Write the structure tokens for this entry.
Amino acid sequence: MQNVFLEIKYGVTAMHRVGSAGNNGNSNRLRKEKKLRYVLRDTDDTKHCAGINCLAVLKSSVSDGCNYLFSGSRDGTLKRWALDEDAATCSATFESHVDWVNDTVIAGDTTLVSCSSDTTLKTWNCFSDGTCTSTLRQHSDYVTCLAAAEKNTNVVASGGLGGEVFVWDIEAAVTPLSKSSDVMEDDCSNGINGSANSLSISSLRTISSSNSIAAHTTQCHGYVPIAAKGHKESVYALAMNDSGSLLVSGGTEKVVRVWDPRTGSKTMKLRGHTDNIRALLLDSTGRYCLSGSSDSMIRLWDLGQQRCVHSYAVHTDSVWALASTPTFSHVYSGGRDLSLYLSDLTTRESLLLCTKEHPILQLALHDDSIWVATTDSSVDRWPAEGRNPQKVFQRGGSFLAGNLSFSRARVSLEGSAPTPVYKEPIFTIPGTPAIVQHEILNNKRHVLTKDSAGSVKLWEITRGVVIEDYGQVSFDEKKEQLFEMVSIPAWFTVDTRLGSLSVHLDTPQCFYAEMYSADLNIIGKPEDDKLNLARETFKGLLAHWMTKRRQRLGSQASVNGNVLSGKDINSRSIANSRIEVDGNAENDSMVYPSFEFSTVSPPSIITEGSQGGPWRKKITELDGTEDEKDFPGWVLDCVLCNKLPSRDNTKCSFYLHPCEGSAVQILTQGKLSAPRILRIHKVVNYVIEKLEKPSDNANSDGTFSPGLGGRLQHSAVGDGSFRSGLKPWQKPRPSIEILCNNQVLSPDMSLATVRAYVILLTSGSRLVSLYWRIVINVSISTDAIVNFWFGHPCFCNTSGKKRL
């Protein structure tokens, strides 16, 4: 895979890839295994929970109609906001991307196009409820930027980290060319992504930065976008004139490239910037171009003269966002220095409009105001006087922009930085603080998180809910307070890239963890029943899907929730997979309370089946039609057929001896084996049973008989009720203690915990040797003790005489 360098400053992470981004054989090999993850939210779905990467304003064509703002976030979603004078209401969430949404444009009056780090473009109806209408797959790496032609409503250009620039005819891309393609569409479309007539377009070819062409999956109905070939490195910015006859691009090569988007041919290359180009604008005619760069400079280019005509040094750090007035006379700029400036392109007069707490990522001019998006999850609307920007300059405080990058830096160091014109925004669309720190606790069901506001919360990932909100406390101190001496296999991983918890479940590792029903407080099941945490979690996640599926298949679910036998699903070959049936779990789909997910703030599933690529959807929006084309086969095997992959290391081997100096004969010979989740009190019961019936030895294979963790009758430690002929108050109550490394073990401790915290931490060995000893309860009468122990064969010498 390519090298990835992270540039971190002011809390911002900018991703740069080195070299060509074409998929190599190694990355293809890693993608073969289908995975599943789910994204948790503890609030309603009307707020973003990560930085806002892009904005687009859709003005109503009717004077009294509603205007809309579209925002795309690092949380992987887009939102539509209905705008009033001093408020904004979320009217739809567009959810289908599986990674950051990096840019969005409006093509025509009703089509929204977005691009993502998931390497796809997606189209949506601006006025829909958030259903994706098509997925376009052509890029080999993150898609970072888009550009649209205002008057040529079908033309959209896309660029990405792979050095690729594609020009799309959106109407042609989403419309089948002929009825003969219907069969191909049925095979290639992904029903997850949208309505019945939606298409998922997979790549016919990927054109790498070296101009080579690599064959890929056959594209549905044969549409191929125009490739503008020439970039050797990542593309960060695109712009197009109104008619769609001119396209400019920029990136890590530090040059502005100019293209004819109708043919993909290069027309010129403009040099002048000394660092990455991060933002581009074209005037409506295509004569003038504005560029913003990580060298802190804004440059104005005359494409007719093919040269830079002005440079504007107003920022002290990288320029990431540009927006111009309709007449292209003034430019608004923002970036890493947290500042929003307004500059007159003719007079070079500039002033500081406002400062932010976070770096500015995107700007969208809206009449006399401007929307500002940052690495925070909120969006601000600031005054801008976009129709007559000279009004702002009349307030005073302006300065003349220099033409050298160090001029502004020197002014800043001299302490003569300008004063912001505006102190407060008109109003703010609030977001939810992003999770910035997390820790998986030892019980492997709880995750401690801290968000950007400093709030610390405790999550139960098997239910997807916050069970404790501790407020603004020390994360490290709370982590220490919640420490438990337990050892459970790591069956999931977590990341917070989307600003929220994403829980990853990969086979076969996710099936390594088991717990007894008693430990999960499940009523109605034998306390010795083992539950596989991953399987129960899948049942909870797909409960709505199972219900819809039964309704679709016309089957009636029984009262106890018996699962469908699996015969109704399409047959799938499992010859190449090692599958076993979990015999300890009932073949049912009943969801236990410890695995019930919220329907108020349901998690979203991100996964991939045999066709169509990765997808994302809320668990409550699954309609029951999804099958192996949409879900990984191993997930369906688990939920529908109760089949789990073979699991290694589910047993723990150990030795059991009497304590040194004890006159009691050894109860077992050789090494014993039991489930690693077995509690020490089960070992106590085993010792008591063997003392009662010394002729019953361990099985020849070293496993306990009748089996620890199986259907062995529970006897509380010290109950002593294993001799017949005695009344309850007459029965002796000896107590058995289990020791390891001279430490008395808690009855609730598991064998895995003993090995992890008593053996490995003290001696470094993995060999578990347990020792037992008898502790006589002094409240027992002497007669009762003598009555029990003198009659026990383990206390007979070789001559058959009784001894203590």
Q: What stands out?
A: The mean pLDDT is 80.
